[in-house]
Write a structure and sequence with these properties.
Strand order of the largest sheet: 1-2
Distance between the termini: 33 Å
Order of helices and strands: HHEEHHHHHHHHHHHHHHHHHEEHH
Helix content: 55-70%
Oligomer: single chain
Radius of gyration: 23 Å
Number of domains: 1
Number of helices: 21
Structural class: mainly alpha
């Protein structure tokens, strides 16, 4: 089955290469779904063949010399904490390509977008498969360049500044991460992540472990993102296209927290014990800060971006407890956040396409009356994100708070009780900003932006193109926000044509799997916890 691991990397890589060498597939809208669909099938085959009774041990390993002179190896494998993230990555990438079938950008840049997303998938999947520290770093870095171009080329009006901020922050974090990895190598003589996890810090003094955890943790915290290193995130999410936001929130943020669980904590356990209170403090501040920032937002996508700061704060708080409960909460929260926030950004992107804006004050109210399916999906995603019991978002947050209630021996319980209280306040504020947004957008009566008093609903063409001026029933563009004005009605601003169209078949196909998985994990959390717990116990067993 090691060939399947190679296939997970080779299929999107070969698919991207074909786009460079052969121009034909760029005109086929189903090329991206086909290539990513094969990758998803391989990921599901891996999950079906995985021995869940040995989830703590890497399976289907591939270990070959890479750079023999430096004793570097191409070491791949999968265990209980990487398997769910590999499947999540393959699923979200496939759903993004499926969404793009009817929502592709104009012009000849669609071919470039497909190429960029396939390269991005190589880096994301490789990060979760790598069992060598340097190989992990290489894949960790591969994702930066394609995501930069996704934001800079296909983003909104402020895309260039957002992309530059994204690349500068993440490259700086990567430089610090590399220093930490080299420090581990210099003191242990190995880059093998399996061996390092089994040694539990052997070969490194307490001072070296503290420095290693600090350097590795800072590098990973930028990607997580941990407050106050999060400032690149809101701009990147706001300006990124819908598929960019989905993959950024659903996968890229998980690479940072995965690195904490896979590398920082098991490799430098004494350093983790010393710095865990600081990690917990920053996580608790991030939970409250992210929630308060959401209450101040007017842009729907920007609000969801800040909500990620708060939700990933729960993941970091779970890691900071250094307990099996807390780490399982973090790993569960990773997957739940990927599903729920991916759905949130999908729906927010669909709303912005219809209304020409994501400004909540301009969206008005009455979406459930005007667009019942879109409004219902938005409501479901928000309720799942605020942690309603029975949905996936509940378990990660609840277990993180439970872990903070009884942290690992040697950590200050009163201090972590303060963190738990901050997390509890964050859950209340999370409910407040989501319910406030829903009351403004989905409930009430439609305003002028969402309802035209003298006309029936538009019947948008399949292509979604605007009728040229001068034609019967025409509309003409008016302004950068994508609004349209009707001739003969000075000052009246009807919505874009697509604003009156409810959820499409392609949107439903892309969004429904996320709804189903959010329900399934919420009702049966053991399906995921039983896979991650053996690895967590092995990582923490010798502490």
């Amino acid at each position: 089955m090691s060939a399947v691991l190679i296939g997970l990397l080779a299929v999107p890589l070969v698919g991207a290469a074909i786009l460079v060498l052969v121009p034909g597939p760029s005109r086929w809208p189903w090329y991206g779904p086909a290539v990513s669909g094969v990758t998803l099938v391989l990921a599901l085959a891996l999950a079906a063949s995985f021995d869940y009774g040995r989830a703590a041990r890497p399976q289907f390993e591939l270990d070959r010399p890479w750079i023999p002179g430096l004793d570097l190896r191409f070491h791949l494998g999968i265990d209980g904490i990487s398997l769910p993230l590999v499947v999540l990555t393959a699923l979200l990438t496939f759903l993004c390509f499926l969404y793009l079938v009817r929502h592709k950008p104009d012009g000849d840049r669609f071919r470039a977008l497909v190429f960029t997303l396939l390269v991005l998938e190589v880096g994301m999947v490789g990060t979760f498969l790598a069992l060598d520290l340097l190989l992990f770093f290489v894949f960790f870095e591969i994702v930066l360049v394609p995501m930069y171009f996704v934001i800079a080329v296909w983003g909104g009006g402020g895309r260039r500044a957002a992309a530059v901020k994204f690349i500068l922050y993440t490259l700086l974090g990567s430089a610090v991460l590399l220093l930490g990895l080299l420090l581990v190598w210099a003191n242990t003589g190995t880059l093998d992540m399996v061996r390092l996890a089994q040694q539990h810090g052997a070969g490194m003094s307490r001072g070296v472990q503290i420095l290693a955890f600090l350097a590795i943790g800072l590098g990973l915290a930028v990607k997580a993102p941990m407050w106050p290193l999060h400032t690149w995130l809101p701009a990147a999410h706001t300006e990124a296209p819908t598929v960019g936001s989905v993959l950024l929130a659903g996968v890229l943020l998980k690479m940072g927290t995965y690195g904490f669980a896979r590398i920082a904590i098991p490799v430098a356990p004494e350093g983790a014990a010393v710095l865990a209170p600081w990690l917990g403090a920053f996580a608790a501040v991030g939970i409250v800060y992210g929630s308060l920032a959401c209450l101040a937002q007017r842009d729907l996508k920007r609000m969801i971006a800040y909500s990620s700061v708060g939700h990933m704060g729960f993941v970091l708080l779970g890691l900071a407890t250094l307990t099996p409960v807390g780490m399982n909460a973090a790993l569960f929260g990773n997957v739940a956040h990927g599903l729920i926030t991916g759905l949130l950004f999908f729906v927010a992107g669909g709303i912005k396409e219809r209304y020409g804006t994501a400004d909540m004050s301009r969206l008005g109210g009455g979406m459930l009356a005007r667009l019942p399916y879109v409004g219902s999906l938005l409501t479901f995603a928000c309720v799942a994100s605020l942690g309603l019991p029975g949905l996936a978002g509940f378990w990660g947050e609840m277990l993180a708070l439970l872990g903070a209630f009884q942290p690992a021996p040697g950590l200050s319980r009163p201090l972590f009780l303060v963190f738990m209280a901050a997390g509890g306040l964050g859950t209340v504020l999370t409910a407040a900003y989501f319910l406030r947004m829903l009351s403004r957008v989905t409930h009430g009566r439609p305003t002028a932006l969402t309802a035209l008093p003298d006309e029936g609903p538009y019947e948008p063409e399949e292509t979604g193109e605007v009728t040229p001026a001068g034609a019967a029933g025409d509309v003409t563009p008016a302004g950068a926000a994508g609004e349209v004005t009707r001739p003969g009605a000075p000052g009246e601003v009807p919505p874009p044509r697509a604003a009156l169209r409810d959820v499409t078949a392609y949107e439903l196909a892309a969004w429904t799997p996320l709804v189903i998985l959010t329900l399934a994990l919420g009702l049966w959390p053991k399906a995921l916890l039983a896979v991650t717990d053996p690895v967590v116990q092995a990582f923490l067993g010798a502490r």
